[in-house]
Hints:
The complex is a heterodimer.
Chain A: E1 4-7, E2 10-13, E3 19-25, E4 31-38, E5 42-49, E6 56-57, E7 64-68, E8 74-78, E9 87-94, E10 103-104, E11 108-112
Parallel strand pairs in A: 2-11
Antiparallel strand pairs in A: 1-3, 3-8, 4-5, 4-9, 5-6, 7-8, 9-10, 9-11
Chain B: E1 4-7, E2 10-14, E3 19-25, E4 31-37, E5 43-50, E6 55-58, E7 61-66, E8 71-76, E9 85-92, E10 99-100, E11 104-109
Parallel strand pairs in B: 2-11
Antiparallel strand pairs in B: 1-3, 3-8, 4-5, 4-9, 6-7, 7-8, 9-10, 9-11
Amino acid sequence: NAGVTQTPKFQVLKTGQSMTLQCAQDMNHNSMYWYRQDPGMGLRLIYYSASEGTTDKGEVPNGYNVSRLNKREFSLRLESAAPSQTSVYFCASSEVDRNQPQHFGDGTRLSIL
Amino acid sequence: SQQGEEDPQALSIQEGENATMNCSYKTSINNLQWYRQNSGRGLVHLILIRSNEREKHSGRLRVTLDTSKKSSSLLITASRAADTASYFCATTLWSYIPTFGRGTSLIVHP
């Protein structure tokens, strides 16, 4: 099984450019998430979607937008990239259940110059 | 904001030794989970321990939970070079969304 697939794996942008990070899961999970991981900061939740058609802000939503395209796909968009958004971005999925684990993709490494 | 804090931040041991890392948290929890992250990869779930459990085992992994001290430990016995990774604890309370700590970086030397 593919699990959670993220594209692209690497991207370099210039300040002010826009881009969309794609995520798809094949585990029929209801809930999907976007995190960013910065050195020494652990994982910080950007946005999440508990089900198709719903999205909610996490800890650090500013500068990002999301779309839950269908049950499988959850995209993250940077409208006007800033150097502070240089990070590794992880998508995850899970059941809506406190006792079920999250399943992660392998990340998108994004550099903004 | 992080709920769990792992300790130590970094750990370096020889193959065959045991590795112990700890997680302290601030509020009550429903469960605590441990994840592993290999370099350049996403997090992989290792084990979940519920607040009414004190110890769980999975292969060479042993997790303990002390709710009175608000702490958990992850013990990896007979470490292998392949155990080199970062290890994160994550806690849940009312929400199904876990809050992750900053992680412990483990290096196992062959």
